[in-house]
Amino acid sequence: MQSLGVQTVIYTDISRDGVLTGVNAAATAALAQATTLHVIASGGVATLDDIVRCHALAAQGVVGVITGRAIYDGRINLQEAFAILK
Fold first, then answer.
1. Of 54, 48, 56, residue with least CA distance to 80
2. Are 23 and 43 in contact (CB under 8 A)?
3. pTM of this structure
């Protein structure tokens, strides 16, 4: 993929997607470490702790996190998330 110019990929743990069981930080970090690609975590994000956990993996190549249902359900407040990550 890198030879085609791909720099960033989204890793979605489909067993966790939409079920709010927590992000699979270990698998996301493993993918980032196994390649030189930037990786965005997705699937299972349920709390601000999941966002903080992914942010802590920045040095390993994890560059973002996708939240969906947790925002719609009010479990994650975007203003709080932005404040924590500043």
1. 48
2. yes
3. 0.88
> What Cα–Cα distance (Å) separates residue 64 from each residue in 3, 39?
22, 7
The rounded Cα 54 to chain-centroid distance in angstroms is: 5
Query: How do residues 28-85 score in pLDDT, each as one tens digit?
Result: 999 999 999 999 999 989 999 999 999 999 999 999 999 988 999 999 999 999 998 8
Domain boundary assignment for the chain: 2-85
Residue 40 belongs to what H/E stretch?
strand 38-42
Using CA atoms, how far residue 41 sits from 8, 16, 32, 63, in Å, is: 11, 11, 10, 8
Fold of 2-85: Rossmann fold (3.40.50)
Spatial separation of the C-alpha atoms in residues 81 and 64, rounded to whole Å? 12
